[in-house]
Amino acid sequence: MKQVPQKDAPLKLNETAAWIREDVSYEVNEPDAFALEEALRQKEKHGGEVVVITSGPARAQQVLREALAKGADRAIHLEDNAFVGLDAFNTAKAFAAAIKDETFDLVFTGLQSDDYGYAQTGVILAELLGWPHATIIMQIEKTDGGIRVKRELEAGFFQFVDMPLPAVLTIQSGINKLRYATLIGIKQAKNKPLRKVALAEVQSAIGENLQKIERLYVPQKTKKTEHIEGTPSEIAKKLVDKLRNELRVL
Amino acid sequence: MPDTILVVVEQREGKLNRVSWETITAGQAIAAATGWTLEAAVVGGNASTFAAEVAAKKVAKVYAVESPKLEPYTPDAFAAALKQLLTAKQPKLVLMPHTYQVRDFVPKLATAMGRAVISDCIGFKHENGKLVFTRQMFQGKFAADVSFTSDAPWFATFQNGAFRGDKAEAGASAAPIETVSVEIADGVVRNKPQEVFKEAKQAVDLTQAEIIVSVGRGIKEQKNVEIAKQLADALGGDLAASRPICDNGWLPMDRQIGSSGQTVAPKLYLALGISGAIQHIVGMKGSRTIIAVNKDSEAPIFEIADYAIVGNLFDIVPPLIEEVKKARAGS
User: Fold this and answer.
1) How far apart, in whole angstroms, are the C-alpha atoms of residue A141 and residue B129?
2) Could you give the C-alpha distances from B23 to A66, B26, B158, in angstroms and in order?
3) Alpha carbon of A113: minimum distance to chain B alpha carbons (Å)
4) Deepest in the core among A193, A248, B9, B240, taking most CB within 10 A?
5) pLDDT tier at B46 (50, 70, 90 boundaries)?
């Protein structure tokens, strides 16, 4: 799971002009919330344990605490500010190193993040682990030999895929309905194990980034936008005038 | 020998996916800027069928990468096949459209070769001999210029609509086609895909709509969707939504606009409380006129809006419904 700036947080560039100022409000990356929910539902159906993992500075622990409150059993936090700047390749390498002694059957990720939006980390992790994967998943059923998943394709198409375990799945938003943490869940979360992994422990597994953000900037407008201002009723009148006389749709 | 750019085109349902032409256009533009050679590859069980179509474009060569194991599509087979091709041909830069299928296999392919993908790009720049790729970040609030810091091959994928497919230049004569038969050992392909299908109840075809009123998170609650419906009715248009609204079940999935829903190009697209995430914008940026209402003046939807109204949609929409009704009654 990943912590990202809140959707409506006003973002500003920092002095490097290659990243944002980090003094903003954060929230869990939305697709990851659906991935967690799906893991909890699979556990409720089939038993087992749900482990949540994230990388990032101390603030990212909030994502893990919320997940534990919702029902995850334990958490792993790769804690260092340096993780924020890793590319998808190295983030996946750090995760692979941190879970090398675990024996998971399934790894879920959100299908992409709301900050970088690379849509790659889950698939890279699968390749590093040597596991099969499937992306943009809308349904998961256990079968005799493994699992059957429903992949979302483009233009309204879908496809079922049978695959063996262990496997990595990237989860589409909307696969399920998210639950809220209960008060008792929040209370219990405080006593659940949270393993911290320092940068030094995975340093040997990661290397230089393979890509670099040269600069970050507010996109240049390609369209001329006319602002319509005034009181709501003035705006309504102006708009209707446009709809009628310029767009001719009324 | 000059460096080479390789465009991997995509086929879908027995036809070339038309976003492939956009990637060819992108490849031609980068070739023109850098002086590199442009080649293309078609991958699949029946790749040669499509190779001739691609060879008619201005490219130096087309590879038809074939193996019976490439049908049906699996990420294991595609990554294995392309790894063989790229290892043999050693292109500097590999370009693909940012489709769901490419998203499924290209990170695996690049990782298997120890390389990275700059995904979902919207453009490129060639500055002082350095190639950088522009992509959106933070849901479109920022753009980033990103460069490769690794050795070749470099992988980049382009967002749907980033280049004009109809601008792909035709070649003076057909490019040579080289058939590349790849060996994919038994056991490499682990997934067993079933037939592709469409959910039967796709009832609404928004692609033909002339006026669309679309709602996003700013609508806040399911009961508020009603005022958007009233506006759509007053305008004689259709109601649509961004993904989160359909995920919440506030409107059915077939009302969804965006990369996972329908792609529309109405005369008028009225976006209410839609912030304008990339996934939504790719589905509606072809609209002739876009009116956006959002309380956040920095919302990315305003970047592509013709008319911007910064304000609370619950203040704006009710009087707008009344004015539209008045105008209709008077005409």
Assistant:
1) 51
2) 42, 5, 7
3) 9
4) B240
5) confident
How would DSSP label each residue in B253-297? GGGBBSTTSB----SEEEEES----HHHHTTTTT-SEEEEEES-T
The values of phi and psi at residue B240, to 5°, are: -140, 180
B131, B93 in Cβ contact below 8 A? yes
Whether residue B190 and residue A159 make contact (CB cut-off 8 A), yes or no, is no
Mutate to test the interface with B, among A112, A225, A241 (most CBs of B within 10 A): A225
B264 close to B255: Cβ distance less than 8 angstroms? no
Tokens of B94: 């590999």
Contacts of B100 in chain A (CB under 8 A): 135-136, 152-154
What span, in angstroms and rounded, lies between the C-alpha atoms of A97 and A192? 22
Distance from CA of B292 to the nearest CA of A (A): 10
Is B329 an interface residue toward A (CB < 8 Å)? no
Distance (Å) of CA B176 to CA B21, B44, B54, B62, B93: 18, 18, 10, 6, 20
Alpha carbon distance A155, A65 (integer Å): 37
Q: How confident is the model over B256-276, as a mean pLDDT?
A: 91
Retrieve residue B248's tokens. Answer: 């919440």
Q: Is the CB of residue B165 less than 8 Å from the CB of residue B22?
A: yes
> Which residues 44-103 of chain A have a CB within 8 Å of chain B?
87-89, 92
Q: For residue range B309-320, list pLDDT tens digits in order.
A: 999 999 999 999
Q: How confident is the model at residue B1 (pLDDT cuts 50, 70, 90)?
A: low
Q: Cis bond leading into B72, ω under 30°?
A: yes
Using one digit for the tens of pLDDT, what is the confidence trace for B89-105? Answer: 999 999 999 999 999 99
Q: How far apart are CA A158 and CA B201, in angstroms?
A: 13
Instruction: Single out the residue of B168, B159, B175 nearest to residue B96, CA to CA.
Output: B159
- pTM comes to 0.89
The DSSP secondary structure of A163-175, one letter per residue, reads: EESSEEEEEPTTS
Is B29 strand, coil or helix? helix
3-state SS assignment for residue B80: helix
What is the ipTM score, two decimals? 0.92
Asked if residue B167 lies in contact with residue B57, where contact means CB atoms within 8 angstroms, the answer is no
CA distances from residue B22 to B17, B33, B157 in whole angstroms, order as listed: 10, 17, 11
Closest chain A residue by Cα to residue B139: A114
- The verdict on a CB contact (< 8 Å) between A114 and B190 is no
Percent of chain B scored above 90 by pLDDT? 81
How is residue B164 written in tokens? Answer: 């004009």
What CA–CA distance (Å, rounded) separates B196 from B61?
31
- Tell if the CB–CB gap between B147 and A221 is shorter than 8 Å: no
Q: Is the pLDDT of residue A225 over 80?
A: yes
